Amino acid sequence: MDEIAILKAIVREMQKGVLVLDKDGTILYANPFFMRNYAPHVEVRGSSIDGLVDSVPLVGAIAEVLKKRKTTGTESIEINDRDRFFKIRTVGLQDTESNLIVFIEDITEEKRVEAIKKDFVANVSHELRTPLASIKGYAETLLDGGLEDRDKLKEFLRIIDKHATRMSRLIEDLLILSRLESHDVPMEQEPIDIYKLIASITEGFKKHAQDKGITLSIKKNGRVPDVLGDRVRLEQVMVNLLDNAIKYTPQGGKVDVIVRYQDGEVRVDVKDTGIGIPPEDMPRIFERFYRVDKARSRELGGTGLGLAIVKHIVQGLNGKVWVESVPSKGSTFSFTLKPAR
Ligand SMILES: Nc1ncnc2c1ncn2[C@@H]1O[C@H](COP(=O)(O)OP(=O)(O)OP(=O)(O)O)[C@@H](O)[C@H]1O
Ligand SMILES: [Mg+2]
Question: Among 267, 264, 257, which residue's Cα sits nearest to residue 314?
Fold first, then answer.
């Protein structure tokens, strides 16, 4: 194979956009990745970059970069075109000074991950700071001579204990999430009688529901085959969903768990008659730390990690998870699992 053929194949298969422009801004070459992703159905080669500004939005952004370009050497710059981010690298072609190669790399995903990381650190710090400030405040008050009043002492210690519990729950949930994400502990894939598992978890919540004046029931629709799953993880899923359903349902309400086999999948619904979720919050509900009402959830001891854990586990088992909800009527959280064969 000759060198030209090899180079051609490389540019053809490259998962980055490549453009070559002459000194007047005419496009001499556009690689298949560029044409496929950024300018489908447009005659790019031979067109001037200014002529394409309207039909190919990304070219408009690149044209701006080229106008501001100062040197004839290599330059790297980040641009955004609507909701996507790109890194544009321009390289002067050595032999003909005025010809230019432009590499276009979509860095939207990197940007997103970067933002999530920043957010995450800010969130964790914030979530730890609040209980810590409380613990410190109450401990200081006690040290400052608050030890005499036995009732006060007991009350303050109870508050300190509550905040310490919150912090250890937060750290535990973070560890679960990080283990799920790192795939350190692989998911078991063993056949499980899912109805039996769910029934036993639901049983464990009966007393809690009763104390809150909520009726909790479980039902099986038809025959349900075993699923392929991880027992401990599936228990976590159910605990988180039931905990939410009971937590966000006022007294006198109902929580129903329905298990069924449908369209080749096992489906579980956890249906409540609770406060529901406003439509604008629905798309973010499975994000880490996302809570509709931060103050209220925190008051109830929540950190907003429960549903993130649920999503991770279900997706890790090749299932789907979603929610339907009507504010002040109730919510139904559903997930599917693959049957064991
Ligand atoms: N069944 C439900 N009804 C109404 N809102 C819900 C329900 N389940 C979850 N939510 C909303 O979604 C948010 C995120 O739920 P998630 O379980 O992740 O966090 P949390 O319950 O606040 O805290 P944690 O689960 O960490 O104790 C909740 O704060 C609440 O606003
Ligand atoms: Mg929860």
Answer: 267
Q: What is the rounded CA–CA span in Å between residue 313 and residue 180?
A: 7
Domain 3-106 CATH class label? alpha beta
Residues 6+ apart with CB under 8 A from 227: 191, 192, 194, 266, 337, 338, 339, 340
Degrees to nearest 5, angle at CA 255 with 211 and 240: 85
Fold of 187-341: Heat Shock Protein 90 (3.30.565)
Pick the ligand that lies closest to the CA of residue 270: 1
Cα 306 to ligand 2 centroid, rounded to whole Å: 4
pLDDT in tens, 206-236: 999 999 999 999 999 999 999 999 999 999 9
Q: Closest ligand 1 atom, CA of 309?
A: 18
Q: Which CATH architecture has domain 108-185?
A: Orthogonal Bundle (1.10)
Q: Is the CB of 230 under 6 A from ligand 1?
A: no
